[in-house]
Amino acid sequence: MTRSPQPQSPAIHWILLRHAHRDTVEPRKDNGLSEKGLVQAQETATQIAPLLRRSRAPVRILTSPKARCLETVTPIGLAMAVRVEVEPRLAEQRDDEDSRAMLRRLRELVKELEARAAGYQLVLCSHGDVLPLLTEMLTGRSESLKKGEWLSVSES
User: Fold this and answer.
1) Dihedral Cα 105, 110, 114, 117, nearest 10 deg
2) Which of 47, 58, 69, 97 has its Cα between 20 and 30 A from that of 14?
3) What is the pLDDT of residues 38-95, one digit of tens each?
4) Which pTM was predicted?
């Protein structure tokens, strides 16, 4: 009897995006973007949307619930005609959450996306404390991103 190899799941193309510059007038509030951040969000959309269009794979955009993240990815969603999905597990570390709990929720998210989003292009918008952990999970190395910066990771 000859066995044929198991079909491989299509790879996921990940785009990890740190939110653009936020309005810091009242730092404790869930402020949206500053004027500088609004410009960064538009510039990011003009960079990322063509990259997403080149592939015929479907796109999902997931974001932390914070206003600055939602405002950062909204121009990408509009350019791609894709609904932005709020994903609470992309939120920054909470005051009542230790590092292990945060890491656990991020691992759970990556595992779920790898199982359910094969063949997709995923744009994940989050924060400076979350993105180094996600990049390490996906690439084996930690990457810090400045506000408005993004990183493309393709699985092989």
Assistant:
1) 90
2) 97
3) 999 999 999 999 999 999 899 999 999 999 999 999 999 999 999 999 999 999 999 9
4) 0.91
Q: What is the C-alpha to C-alpha distance for residues 131 and 127, in angstroms, rounded to an integer?
A: 6
Residue tagged 């890491």 (tokens) = 103
Work out the widest C-alpha separation in the chain, in whole angstroms: 70
Amino acid, res. 101: A
Helix (H) or strand (E) holding 76: helix 67-80
Half-sphere exposure of 54 (CA within 13 A, CB side): 5
Domains of the chain: 13-154 (3.40.50.1240)
For 90, counting Cβ atoms within 10 Å of its Cβ (0-12 exposed, 13-18 middle, 19+ buried), the class is: buried
Q: Which residues contact 108 (CB under 8 A, 6 or more apart)?
A: 89
